[in-house]
Write a structure and sequence with these properties.
The complex is a heterodimer of chains A (about 300) and B (about 375). Chain A is mostly helical and about 300 residues long. Chain A folds into 2 domains: about 80 residues, no CATH class; about 210 residues, MetI-like (MetI-like fold, Orthogonal Bundle), CATH 1.10.3720.10. Chain A is built from 14 helices and no strands. The longest helix of chain A has about 35 residues. The chains are: A mainly alpha (about 300), B mainly alpha (about 375).
C-alpha cells in the first residue's frame, strides 16, 4: 500500500490529502464487499454442516435454527450405515479408483510430456497440436462407442473402465502443464548426466522428475479431485451397489430412501463426509493447486 | 451381506489388469524405441516417439476410434441390446436421426434452449462478479491469501455435493434462501418462490447455484492475470490524470482481456457440458433437460445409442461453432501486447488454445477424462 501511495504524493503534493481520503473510502468499500462475498461463499458451507447435525424432527422448522440444538452427532453414524452397504466400502472404492487412476495418469503424462518437451522427432508439432485439440472434443461424443468397447471386453461392472484408461496419458492439460515445466529446465543438466553414462530412463526418473516436482504435485492434486468426483464413469459402468464410489452412493441414496421425503440431514452428512478429504487436501496444498489452475491461463 | 471376500475379489481383479496394462504400456515404449532405432531412425527421434506412445495409443483407442464409430452410429438406429460385431453392423439410415432431432423431437429444442440460456446468463454474470472480486483482491488488501482460500472453497466441493446442498437451500418451505428472503417477501406480501420446483424459476436457480460453484475458479485465474499487469501502467495513468474508473477502463480491462478470454472459453465449454449437478436435482419436466443429460438419457435409459450419437455430434458441432465464434471475436476485444503479426492480425497464443480445452474437466464437472468419461 505504502509503495503505491508515495509516488502519487510526489507527483501532486497538493492533491495528497484528498487522494488519501479517497483511498480510505475505497478501502472501506473494498473490505465491505469482500466480507459480503465471503459471507455468500461461506454461509452455504455452514448450512451444510449445520443440517448434518440437526435432528430430523427439527429439519423443516420455520424459521430454521442457525445453530443446531441439540447437536446430533449420531447423524453421521446413521448416514454411514443408512444403505445396505456401509460407507466403509464406498470410501474404499473411491480411494481405490482414485489412487489407481491418479498414479497411472501421473506416470504416463510425465513420460509423454518429457517426450514432447525434450526430443525432436518428425511430426512432433502436429501431434502436440492434435493432442491439445482433443480437449475440445466433448466427452459425450466418445461415450457410446467407449461404452460398447468395455462391454465387448466383458468389463462392465468392474473398476477397469475408470482406471485402466489412465495408463494412456489421459488428461492433455496435465501433459501441457508438465511440458511447460520440462521446457524451462536447462538442457545442460541432461547432457552432463548423459556424459556420466546415464540412460534416458535414469535421467527421467532421477533427474528430471525431481526437478518438476511442483508441477507433479499440482497434477496429483487436480487428478485426485477429478477422479474422486468422477461421476459419468461409475454412472454408466457400475451396476452393483457394493462397487459404487461415494458419489454413486449419494446418488443411490437420493433416488431410493430419500426420494419421497428427502432426508436432508443424512444427505448433508454424506456430502460433508465426501467433501472433507477434498477440502483438507485443498487447505494443505492450495499454493500448488492454484499454480496448477493458473498455469497456462496467464502469460508469463 | 458385505464380506471382505468380495472386496478382495473386486479389487484384485482390477488391480491385476491395471498392473498388466501398465507393464504393457512400458513394454510398448521400450519396444518402439528399439524397433525405430533398428529401422535406422536416429536415437533422439526414436526415444521421443517411444515416450509419447502412451498418448498415441490412448488417442487411437479412446479418441479416434470412438469418434469415428460414434459418427457411424449416429447414422444408424443402433440400440444397446444388440451386440456390435463386424459381420453384423447395424444398417445405415442416413441422416434420419439428425432430421428427427431438429424437426420432430419435442425435447430437443427445449434442451438446447436451456443449455444455451444457462450459459448466456451465468457466464457474463459470473465473469463480471469474478472480475470485480479479483480487482478488489488485487488492491493489495490485507490477508489476500485468506480471502482467496475462502473464495475458492466452493470449487473444491464435488458437483454432486453442490447440487444437493443448493437443492436443500432452495427448499421452498424451510430452505435457507427463502428464510433470508421472507422479510422482503412479506413486505410485498409475495408468496415463497418454489425455485427448482417452479418451471419458471429452474433456470435462475441453476444460474445462482452454478455461479456459487465456479465463482472461485474464475476469480483465482483473473486475480493471477491482474497481478501480471505492470505497476508502471497504473502510475503512468495516474500521472495522466486518470481516476479509478479511468484506470479500470484504460489499464485494467485491456490488460486482463487475454485472461478473460481464457476464462470465457473455459466456462463456455463447462456450461455446454453441464451434467453432474443436474442429475442430483429433480426439476419439473416442462423446464427441459440439459443437453448432455438428455444425451445420456437417450443412450443409457432409452437405449437409443444411434440417436444419442447423433445428438452428441450436434453438440460437438455446436461447441465448435461457439468456440470458433469466440476465437474469431478475439480481434475485436482481446489485447495482446507486442504480439501483433505482420498482417496486423492478433496471433493466438498456445495457452489460449489450451484454454478452450482444459475446460470443464476439472473446473465445473470435475471429470478428469477427455476420453469418453471412461
Amino acid at each position: 500500500m505504502a509503495t503505491q501511495a508515495i509516488p502519487r504524493e510526489n507527483v501532486s503534493p497538493v492533491r495528497g490529502s484528498s487522494l488519501k481520503q479517497q483511498k480510505t473510502l475505497v478501502d472501506a468499500i473494498t473490505y465491505f464487499l469482500l466480507a459480503l462475498g465471503a459471507a455468500i461463499v461461506l454461509v452455504p458451507f455452514w448450512w451444510m454442516v449445520k443440517t448434518s447435525l440437526t435432528a430430523q424432527t427439527r429439519l423443516f422448522e420455520f424459521p430454521p435454527q442457525f445453530f443446531p440444538d441439540p447437536i446430533v452427532w449420531r447423524n453421521y453414524i446413521d448416514a454411514w450405515y443408512a444403505l445396505p452397504v456401509s460407507f466403509t466400502r464406498f470410501t474404499a472404492n473411491t480411494i481405490f479408483i482414485t489412487v489407481l487412476a491418479m498414479t497411472a495418469e501421473i506416470l504416463t503424462c510425465s513420460l509423454v510430456a518429457y517426450g514432447f518437451a525434450r526430443f525432436r522427432f518428425p511430426g512432433r508439432n502436429f501431434l502436440f497440436i492434435l493432442m491439445l485439440s482433443t480437449m475440445m472434443l466433448p466427452s459425450v461424443v466418445t461415450l457410446v462407442p467407449t461404452f460398447i468397447l468395455w462391454r465387448e471386453l466383458k468389463l462392465i461392472d468392474t473398476y477397469d473402465p475408470m482406471t485402466l484408461g489412465a495408463w494412456f496419458a489421459w488428461g492433455p492439460s496435465y501433459i501441457f502443464l508438465l511440458r511447460q515445466f520440462f521446457l524451462s529446465l536447462p538442457k545442460e543438466i541432461e547432457e552432463a548426466a548423459r556424459i556420466d553414462g546415464a540412460n534416458t530412463f535414469q535421467i527421467y526418473w532421477h533427474i528430471m522428475l525431481p526437478l518438476v516436482k511442483p508441477a507433479l504435485l499440482a497434477i496429483a492434486v487436480l487428478s485426485f479431485i477429478g477422479n474422486w468426483n468422477n461421476f459419468m464413469g461409475p454412472l454408466i459402468y457400475l451396476n452393483s451397489g457394493e462397487k459404487y464410489p461415494l458419489i454413486m452412493a449419494l446418488k443411490f441414496f437420493e433416488q431410493s430412501l430419500s426420494k419421497e421425503a428427502p432426508l436432508f440431514h443424512y444427505m448433508m452428512a454424506m456430502t460433508t463426509m465426501m467433501s472433507f478429504p477434498l477440502l483438507m487436501l485443498y487447505f494443505f496444498m492450495q499454493r500448488t493447486l492454484i499454480e496448477g489452475i493458473t498455469a497456462g491461463a496467464v502469460k508469463g | 451381506m458385505v464380506d471382505t471376500g468380495s472386496w478382495v475379489q473386486d479389487y484384485s481383479l482390477t488391480l491385476s489388469h491395471w498392473l498388466l496394462v501398465g507393464a504393457a504400456v512400458i513394454l510398448v515404449i521400450v519396444l518402439t524405441n528399439r524397433l525405430l532405432q533398428s529401422l535406422g531412425m536416429n536415437a533422439e527421434a526414436a526415444t521421443g516417439l517411444a515416450l509419447i506412445m502412451p498418448w498415441v495409443l490412448g488417442f487411437l483407442i479412446f479418441s479416434l476410434y470412438p469418434f469415428l464409430t460414434s459418427f457411424y452410429l449416429s447414422l444408424t438406429e443402433y440400440n444397446l441390446l444388440r451386440p456390435l460385431s463386424l459381420d453384423k453392423l447395424p444398417p445405415l439410415v442416413g441422416f434420419k436421426n439428425y432430421q428427427y432431432a431438429i424437426t420432430d423431437d419435442p425435447n430437443f429444442w427445449p434442451s438446447i434452449r436451456l443449455t444455451l440460456l444457462y450459459g448466456a446468463i451465468s457466464i457474463p454474470l459470473g465473469l463480471a462478479g469474478s472480475l470485480l472480486t479479483a480487482m478488489l483482491l488485487a488492491r493489495d488488501v490485507r490477508g489476500v491469501g485468506i480471502w482467496r482460500t475462502i473464495y475458492y472453497m466452493p470449487a473444491v466441493l464435488p458437483a454432486a455435493a453442490t447440487a444437493l446442498l443448493w437443492r436443500w437451500m432452495f427448499n421452498p418451505s424451510s430452505g435457507l434462501i427463502n428464510t433470508i428472503l421472507s422479510p422482503i417477501l412479506n413486505l410485498f406480501s409475495l408468496g415463497k418462490p418454489a425455485w427448482f420446483t417452479d418451471p419458471q424459476l429452474v433456470l435462475p436457480s441453476y444460474v445462482i447455484m452454478g455461479m456459487w460453484g465456479i465463482f472461485g475458479t474464475t476469480t483465482v485465474i483473473l486475480l493471477a492475470g491482474l497481478k501480471n499487469v505492470p505497476r508502471e501502467l497504473y502510475d503512468a495513468a495516474t500521472v495522466d490524470g486518470a481516476g479509478l474508473f479511468g484506470q479500470f477502463r484504460h489499464v485494467t480491462l485491456p490488460q486482463v482481456t487475454p485472461t478473460l478470454f481464457y476464462v470465457l472459453i473455459t466456462s463456455m465449454i463447462g456450461a455446454l457440458q453441464f451434467f453432474t449437478a443436474a442429475l442430483f436435482i429433480t426439476t419439473p419436466r416442462e423446464a427441459g433437460t440439459f443437453l448432455q443429460v438428455y444425451i445420456w438419457q437417450q443412450a443409457f435409459q432409452s437405449q437409443k445409442m444411434g440417436y444419442a450419437s447423433a445428438l452428441s455430434w450436434i453438440m460437438l458441432v455446436l461447441t465448435l461453432l461457439l468456440t470458433l465464434l469466440v476465437f474469431r471475436s478475439q480481434a475485436l476485444w482481446v489485447y495482446y501486447e507486442g504480439e501483433l503479426q505482420q498482417d496486423g492480425k492478433k496471433r493466438v497464443r498456445e495457452p489460449d488454445l489450451v484454454a478452450g480445452t482444459r475446460a470443464s474437466q476439472q473446473l465445473s464437472e470435475g471429470q478428469p477424462t477427455p476420453h469418453g468419461g471412461a
